[in-house]
Amino acid sequence: PAGASGVAFKHAHSQDNPEADWGRHVQQAAQFALTALGQAFPQAAPFTFDNTRVIAVGISNGGGAVLRAAELEGDWLDAVVAGEPNVYVDGHGSRALYDYTTEAALLMPCALLDLPAESLPQPPLLEPLRPFWQARCASLKAAGVIEGADTAAQARSAHDRLRAAGWSEQALIAGTASAGFDLWRAVAVTYASAYGRHGIGEHPCGFAFSAQNPDFSPRPATDAERGSWWSDASGIPPGNGVGILDPKLAPPDLTLAGLQCLRGLYTGQEPAARAVQAGIGATRALPPRAGLPVLVVHGMDDGLVPEAFSSTPYLAAARAAGRQDVRYWQVRNAQHFDAFLGFPAYGARYAPLLPYVHAALDRVWAHLEGQGSLPADAVIEARGRGTGAVEAAQLPMP
Hints:
The chain is of the alpha/beta class and 398 residues long.
C-alpha cells in the first residue's frame, strides 16, 4: 500500500489464509500435471484421472496438505503418503500448530534449562543462550505463569507444564533447535498474520518484516540482498537478509511482550484474536475418503510437529470414522529436520525420516499394482549413526 515499507511475504500478507485450502490446491496441482503431461506427450494424450495414477506425497506442511486432499470426494486420487504432517483434527488430543508453537515459544527456553546440557543437541550453541533463557524464567515467574524461587525451580516448573500439555521428553529435546534458532517466534508471527488475513502493516501485534541494522532497526535492503531472497528463502523470516521487526522488543527479556501478544491471539476473545482463531478453525482436517489407502510416517522425536498433536490424533480420528485403510509408521529416533543430520550431534543421535517416506511410497505403489497388501502399522527401531558412517542396519524397514 501507499506509504508502506518493509518486505511483504505472500504467506503472511496474501489475506488468503492459504492453509485452509491446502487440499484443493493439491487437487489443482494434479489437474495441472495432467494438462502438462498432455502437452509434453500429445501422442499419449489425453491424460485424465481415469487413466492416470495419482499418489499425493508430502512432508511437514506438504504432509498436511496431502491429508487434506485425501478428504476430497471423487476418484481422482489413488493413494496418499504423508510424512511428519502438520495436520489438525477435532479431538483425540490434536492441537493446532499455532497453539503449541506459541506455547513453546514462551515456555521452552526456560524449560530446557531443566534438562542436562549434554542431553541437548547442538547447534544452536547453548551457552550464549543461557542468559536469555534464564531471563525468560524470571519473566514467566513474575507473570505468574510458573513457580519457583530460583532459576532451577522455575525451569522445572516450565518443564512440568509442557509435559502436562502433552510434550514428550523426546520432542522437548529435539525442540532445542526451534528454541535456539528462534523458529517458534518466526512461525507464530507469520502464521498469525496468515490466519487473521492481515495485510501489510496490519499485524495485530505490530510485527513486520524488513532488512535490519545491527540494532534491529529497519533499513532498505541492498540489491545483493534482494537478489538472494528467492534462492535463499526458507519461506518464513528471519533469514536471507530479512528480519522480524518487533515493536515490543525490550530488555531484559527482549521478545517476551511480543510473544505474549501472539499467544493472546489464540487464547483471547478480542476481535483480532477471534479472526486468528477462525483462520485456524478453517484448517481442520476431516477423515479421508472411504477406501482411499493412506500411509502416515512420523518421527517419534519430532520437536517441531510432535506426533502426539498431529499424526496420532489424525489416525485415531480416521479409525473412529471407520477408515481402516489408514496406516501409521512411527520411526524411533527421527526428528523433523533431516537436513540437520549434517551436524555431528544430530547425525549421531537421530535417524533420517525421508528414507521411510520413500519406502512407504514404494509399498503403496506395490499395493496399487496388486503386488502386496497395504503395509501394517509399525513402530520402526531406527537409530542415529553414532560416531561412525551410516549403515543399513540403522534403518530397518518394516
